[in-house]
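Hey team,

Filing this mostly as a record. A colleague (T.K.) asked me to run one chain through the structure pipeline before their review meeting, and I want the input and output archived in the tracker in case anyone asks later how it was produced. No errors, nothing strange. Just documentation.

Input sequence:
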Amino acid sequence: MSGVREGSAFAGLGSEQLLRVIVEIGAGLDLDATLHRIIGAARELTSAQYGALAVRDHDGNLISFTHEGMDAETVRHIGHLPVGKGLLSLSLLDTPALRMDDLTTHPAAVGFPEHHPPMRAFLAVPITIRDTVFGNLYLTHVDPARVFSDSDEVAARALAFAAAVAIDNAQVFERERTSVKWMEASREITTALLSRTEPHRRPLQLIAERARALTDAEQAIVLVPEDADAPAGDVDTLVVSAAVGVLATDVLGQRVPVQGSTSGAVFRSGEPLITEKLRYPIQAFTGGGQRPAILMPLRAHDEVVGVIVVARGADQPPFNESYLDLVSDFATHAAIALVLASAREDARQLTILAERERIAHDLHDHVIQRLFAAGMDLQGTLARARSLEVADRLNRTLDDLQTIIEEIRTTIFELKSPAAAGGDFRHRIQRVVADLTGDRDLVTTVRLDGPMTAVGPGLADHAEAVTTEAVSNALRHSGASRLTVAISVADMFILDVIDNGCGIPADNARRSGLATMARRAEQLGGTCEITSPPEGGTRVHWIAPLLED
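Output structure:
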């Protein structure tokens, strides 16, 4: 070998310097800080201008690349980090070190990307933990006159041995710390759902937010069956009920087929899945291509009630197997919390129904009877009235009393009607709109006029689906600040969803959803019209007859 070898830092410093840097690299338990200390120590011992540590997964794929020596401007111009090609692709498991005076002469060399500084002398040593290569430590010189000496190699190998211990300790600490974070998130979700300490946050949205934050992901979505009452084996479509991160607004409310989708496979199997090739069968995500993801079934009492999908960007490292247990426990706790929260909501609804029944009885047994008595007294007074003006007033008052009695009877009928009779339609519509718009900066108005108990179960299901589709479209595409959902029940059922957004786009990217709403109206013998009012925005006008089910 040519070049200067006697000028290495280690040759002049000896074992005391090596001992000091070995002690220093194990001074902390933060993994990222430990990696930087290792690189810094290696550069100090060998006087290398550049140093890097590449971490690999169980399959040998490069998952992280930590480097030192380049200024921020150079790093910015280079762009993306290495992906493990060329010399970085070589396995050092059976090699104590790889040292050369000119790395460009090695058969595996593939050159440097644009704006990358030139490098000549090269030294690489593996960092092995329990007979597995955790990663490789790379050191380079720029000056052609500088090469790595035998003592540099010895120092780097000794440092790699000590680094393995420090990294192992840091990994154990990192796993424990991560486990605590997941447990705290599970506890937070359970507390929030059961105590309703965050009533403005939808449960599934809260789960998606925590899952994304814990995995350093680009986006997280929660999918649930489109038909919540269907047996799991009969579910053919999942709906994105919660979304956070990149394109969250675009993906919310989208439908994903169970057959042929990664999410559907997890829903069917009930087993978590790590993949580097997740594709969203959703138009808003097709441009993103494949990306690493982890998918978790929401399982409670041996039943899958949904799927959490957490996806990283294409340039982020894939998930490793260590996530499976943590994520599975989190998903299980979240699913159980959802079921318990649902049971609590059911109990609350039963309490409300019982209270409504009591109020209805009180109105019938006390209020109406007293109004009847008052009316009879007025009729007796009317018979003795001598003034026409007084008689007219008494007649008008009697008519008003009769109107009040009829209104109270209507109220009693609605209060006492079981959910099956009207599908608890008023509550269903209010809940759908609240769920979809609860976390949006949007002024929302819901108006329901007429006897909602006249809406049969079949029409109620269609109307709820159309409301969901129309509101979801407005949230995804319109950029509206105001949204009105108005339902009128008289001779016909009339639903209007009106927003003040940008109107119907020229390319009409919502064609599929609009066609579905129109098809539902046609099935019932009704109509669906989507227009842009003169004042702007979009109006969905959906009409159907009040047919008996």
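Quick notes for T.K.: The CA atoms of residues 262 and 432 lie 27 Å apart. Confidence is low (pLDDT under 50) at residues 4-13, 197-201, 419-423.
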